[in-house]
Structures
1.
Amino acid sequence: MFPQAPWHNPPVDNTLSPQHELDQVLAAEQERRDSRLPADYKLVLQRAIKLETLARFDAALQACDEALQLIEEQGLPNCGEAIVRRGWIQYRQGRKEEALAAYAEAEHQFSKMGLPVLPSISLYRGSIFTDSGRYAEAFAEFADYERLCHEQGLPVHPVLANNRGGLLLLLGRYKDALEEFGRSEHQYIEQGLPVFPGLADNRGLVYGKLGMYEEAMAAYDESERMFRERGLPQSWELNFNRAMTMYEVGHTAEAIQQACKAIYICGEQGVTAPDFLMETLRDWLAPKPDQLVKEQKASQPVAIEPVRDNEKKYDAFICYRRSSSLAISMLLKTHLDLGGKSVFRDQDDLHKGRFQADIMQAIRLTRHLVVLMSPGFFARCITDENDILRQELAAALHYGTHIIPVMMEGFSWPAPTELPEDIRAICEINAMSYSAEFFSAFMDKLLRWMSE
């Protein structure tokens, strides 16, 4: 969750709760109706903003559509702001592809009218790229936001430092992340803006990773207090972050309670609970969590030509589509390297002229095949018998390489009968969900699955 960007924030009385601000907008709209004045799309858009702040996303989207309709009916030239707002709400609902499409449409509208593009589009798009594990693109978008603000004479919103800190947190650069969070807080105060409650939540995550449990819990409590005092809706992310920190120190019962609360909040706000959240809770609720690792190993098909472990050379081989998962494969390799694992990734370890031979030999000599299954991952496997990923999967199944399927956002399994016979058995293997937003917890689970 991020605060509103500066371009659509009118001066407000910070003593008012979001509900009171919404009531003021509704009263202004009623006053226009009583005076028989035409509806003002700017007021309708403000209503959308206040509804989104209160996590009433469906109603907020309806208000955006209403604003766009008014713009069209009244022959007004610019609908870009309403489209950007709609994209942000879709993002908060977890509808990232629709949000990206909305931002692209808004940029087109601004360009068509000869107007400068709103800097906040880059800020919002960077947030989506962060959640999707596209970290280099996220940093670039944040840099574009800062550049556009300077070019247009606009103040840089403090949320930029918060977002950069979140990226550094995901990359394990905890000291740098804390510095960015501190910079963001200072900027909020300096600009006379209320400090974003999520800053304390982010600090809690860092403290948890540094083993500072008491400090982490205090930060989460501070964040929760700030949400409550500001009259803001509860944050499912805060509750799940606190749950993971609790679980890491062995407070399993409390962690389960917090995760359940996070799921409840998602349902209450009309947000689709992330697959990783649901999967994590199922893992924690299992009578014997270690049994899940054994079950994953037991789901592996019987090898045709097994290779003894003392012949293995690599701990992991990363199987992925370059068009969709290149950046994530690089990130994964980096973290596995830091964890002391020997990792084969095609762009790092292949020799010229021996591509296919090297691939097959590497898989034969690898303990674990980590398969990053992005949307449409199997499409070419089905239509092209020479598809390299099909050959990688077939080799792993043949030699008995332990396969760990990782379901990326938007991936769905094909029917087993749709897959070629030489890779069909992968459908029987227990898979895990990927999470960029909770990447550290994802890595912990991946390493547990690689430990047996």
2.
Amino acid sequence: MGLAEGQGSLEGTGEMLSGLHRKGKKNRSCAGFSLVELAIVLLIAGLFISPLAWLYQNQVMEEKLAMQIVKFTEIQENINNFAVNANRYPLPADLFDTPASPTYGQEIAGVIEGCAGWPTTRGVCRSGAGANAVLIGAVPFVALGINPDFAHDYWDNKILYVVTEQQTVGYTPGNGQVILQGYSDNVSQILVNLPNPYDLVLISHGENGRGAYTRNGILIAPCAGSPAALEQENCNMDGVFVLRKYTTATTEISMAASGAGAGFFDDFSQEQDRIPREEWLQSLADPDYALTFADKIGIGTTDPQAPVHVVGRVQADRVLSDNICGGSASGCFNPEIIAGDVSDMDCGVSPGVYRPLLDIANSQVYCGTSVDSGGSPLGGGNAFIFSGFTWVDCAASGQKVTGIDATGAPICNY
């Protein structure tokens, strides 16, 4: 082989090696990210994803809370409607009942056992005694006339209904006995009793279901097994309950805590200390009637001075009243005196013998001397004769004198 040939062979070999070198560079550039580069990408992605995940979880929680508020509000409105009509709150229903039970969703009847022996024979118990007693059970959706779904929370567990027992006998504002607790503020998170005991509270035991009962009356998880003291307070049946949120005069205090341990709390709640007096509620007996617990109603005035105070005209085809009084609530009389059959309002002596009406006062009539149809006195004395007297015998047609017209003639009416 000549020198020229050898040189050409070497040059070809060099070009081939150079090509392999360039090809190797290209392959390394297409090999993807290194572990360090991948870690940096994941770190950056995590910085964006973490707040988004937190926002998503918060949104889901708010949706659950919103659904619970809808259910609580439906229950509460119907409890108030029931109370206005019956003048009492409804009794709880049995937590152990199934949809097949004949008493499912109905007010408990019969003997109610103490909560110290929970679980009791039936799923309702009494905490405390006498005027301080509260009853704990399920929402009586049958008595309230609502769909059973409203009596079950987001997780389809029965909503706990706690009510002051004496308020289920007769409603009196300010007699609530349900003790509620909450944090003193959003910083120190010290558990304190809220001022003024409440009439009732509705509670959902949250996602973990500690102390909750299913639609079929089965316990989800025992209350005693919870490491969270806050969780146990709403299912230990002691008459004291913790609110998820409540509002002071200036601040909303939240009880919700994340994570595990003694501070964990995922319950939802809604409380009531009285029936709202400003509400008008429909009568259960007659939907044409509206009822209220307001002490005074003002029409045309913002300062009513009586149970019903109207400034202006009142138009009515018929008014039912036991008494009609003057503006100062004096000089009252029973309408029966005018329109009824009352002897004190009768100027007749006997059939065909009448005396003229002289005056009406002190819930009676004052009559003149008996006269005949010609106006002559029958028993002596002076007869009272109306000017332009016209004889009208109201009694002949079974009517009574209800007035005197401009001519002096009696006005008859039934």
